Amino acid sequence: MLDRFRHWWHGAERKQSGAMRSIMLLYTPGQPVWTSDNYELLANEGYCQNIWAYVCIGVLMRAVGQLRWIVTETGAGQNGAAMEMPDHALALLMRRPNPTQGGARFWGEAVGYLQISGNDYIERVGPGVSGLGTPRELYNLRPDRVTVVPGSRVGMVDSYQYRTVGQPETFDVRKVLHLRTFHPCGQGDLYGLGAVRAASRSIDQNNESRKWNVSLLQNGARPSLAFSFQGNLEDKQYNRFQKLMESSDTGPLNAGRPITLEGGGKVEVFSKTPLEMDWLQGMIQSGMETAAAFGVPAEIVGLKEATYENRLEARRALYTNTVLPLGDWLRDELNNWLVPLFDDSGRTSLDYDRDAIDALQEDRDKLWSRIGRAWWITIDEARAATGYDSDPDKGGLYQWEAKPAKISSGDASPSQAAVKARLIAYERKDAAGAVRLQREALFPGAVADVSDLFDLEMQDLIVEFDDDSEALDPDDVKTRIDAKLQEKRTRWEALLLLLLLRGGEPSAARTYQDISSLAPGIAVPGSPASWLGAMKAQANTQIQAMVTGILETSRKALSRLVDALATIETLTHAALVDGIRKVYSIFETRRAVVIGEDAVTTGTNLGPQVVAEVASKPAPDGTPGLVLVKTWHNPEDDRTRILQRSGFDHMEPSVEEQTVPSSVLFHIPAADAPGGYEELDFPGDTSHGASLGNVINCRCWLTYELA
Known about the structure:
single chain, 707 residues, 3-stranded antiparallel β-sheet, mainly alpha
C-alpha cells in the first residue's frame, strides 16, 4: 500500500479503496541520483549552490590570480646574465590579457574553469586575418561551449569548435591553448576531470541535506507523518482534508500549529529526526571531503576551528601543496605555448615570483637566514639555493670573502689592517668548517659501532634472563643487570678510545699545518708520534667519565623498567626480556647517535689541543715553544641552547670567540648550577669535572694562532 504514496519528503495520497484508508506524507528513498557530467549541472550544483565548493574555488582563483608573473631574458643583463624584463610585450600581456580583464581576474577565471570542468581554453588573438601572429590579446573560452575535434591519431586534436548561437566557429588548433587536468577514463584523452566532478557525491550529499533541513524547518521541524482513519473517506472528505493540510499545517507560516483530526484519526512518525540522522556531522564531513578534493585545508574555509598559528600553517600548506604546483603547471604550459610566439630563440622565459607570496615569507626568511650563515659556500651556491641566477663577477667567491669588515660607528672607513684581520678571521673559520665537515663524515661509522655494542650488551642480558622458571625478585634482577653492564666497561673504553683517535688524528694534523702557516720559517715542535701518545693519555681520562655516564644511564633506564614491570604484574622472565628488547631498541636508535657523534666531536677537539700543548713546550735543546692562544667558536644555528646571559656561555650565539692562552682553561657557565662555572680545556672536555650538560651534543670547536 505504501508504494502508492511515495513523494519527495512530503506529499498526499491518491484515492484508494479498502477497509482502511490512509493519507501519508512520506518519502521512501530509492537509488541515489548523482549529478551528471553536464557542465551546467556541475557549475550550478557544485559552484552556484554549494557554499564549500564556492569558497574553495574562490580561494584558488584569488591565490593564482595574485601571482606576480615575471619575464626574464638570458643575456640581457651584465656579462650575459639573465635579467627581468618588466616592459617586455609578454609581461604586459600577462598583466593585461585583453581590454576587459586584468591579469588577476583573467588567470583566476582560468583556474575556476579548471576546477569546475577540468578544462580551460585560452584563445590568442594576433594581427592579420589568421590571427596567428604575435598575440596581442588572450581570452578564456567557456568550456561548455567548446568541442574538441579529434585528429587522425589518438590524443591529437584537429581543431576546436566554439558554439554560442547559430553555426559554431572553428578555431585553428594553434590559436587555442587547451589546459586540461588528468582524466583516466572516458574521453580522458581529449577532456580533463574537474575537482567538482570528483567531489560531486559529497557536494550532492551536502546540498540535499540542506534542502531536507530547510523543508523540515518550514514544517515546524516535524518529521514526515502518516495520517490514518478508520473506514473509508468519501471523495469530498478526502479533498477537504488534503486542502486543509496544505493550507493550514504545512509551510513556515504554519509551523507549530496544532493538528485536529476527526473520526478516530491517528498520526504516525515515519522519518527520522535530525539528531537521529546526525545531520550536522554529516554536513561537516561532506564539506571536508569537498575541501580535500580542491586541495584546500579545512581551516581556510571555516570547517575547523583554528587558532592564529593554525591558520598560518594552513595557508602555508595551501600554497605548498596546491597553489605552487598549480602555478608551476600553468607556467610550464605557457612557456611551451605562449613564450615561443614572442621569442623562439629560447632566451626568454616566464615564471612567477615566489618571494612575493606573503604566506611563504616566514619560510623564505628562514631560508635566507640559513644561507646567510653558511659562510663556507660560494656566492653562486647561495644564489642558486635562493632561486637566483649566478653572479658572473663574484659568483666564485666564498660568502665570507664577499662580506664587508665590521667596523665601529666611530670609524669613518675601515683601515687596511682591519679588513685584513677580518678576512684572516674568516679564513680560520673556514678552516674550522672543513674540520667540521671532516668529523661529520665520520659520524655514520661511529654511530653504527656504538649501536653494535648496544646490541651485544642486550644479547648478554637476554641470555642472563632467558629462563622460564619461577618469578624474579626485582632487587636481584637489578643487581644482576648492574653486574652485566660492568662486564662491558672494557669494551666501551676500547670503542670510545678508537672513536676519539679516529676524529683526533686528522684534526691534529690539520692544526699542525695551520700553526706552521702562522709561523713561516719557524720549526713548530711536535710530531705525529708525540701527538698520538699525548692524545691517548688525555683520552683515557676523558673516556673514564664518558663510560661511567653511559653505564649509569643504561642502569637507570633498566631499573625503571624493572620497577614498572614489578608494579603492574609479577616480574617474569618473558616480560623482562621483552622489556629489555624495547629499551635497547631506543638505545640503538637514539643514544647511539648522541654517544657516537659526541665521541668523534670530542676527538676532533682533543687533537688540536694536544698539538697546541706539544708546540708550546720547550724543545730538548732549550728552544722555547710557541706562544699560542685559542678561540672558542659555536655553530650559531637554531639548535643553540641558551643557559644564562651573564659571562661567557658556549651555548650562547651572541657571545662567542672568547680567546685565552692555549694553556688556560675556559670558564663555562655550569649547566646544572646557575651562577656557577665549570672549567673546560676544549669543547667536550670532562677531565676537569665538567658536567654532562656542558658536554653532550656540544658542537663547538677551537682555532689557534700565535699570540
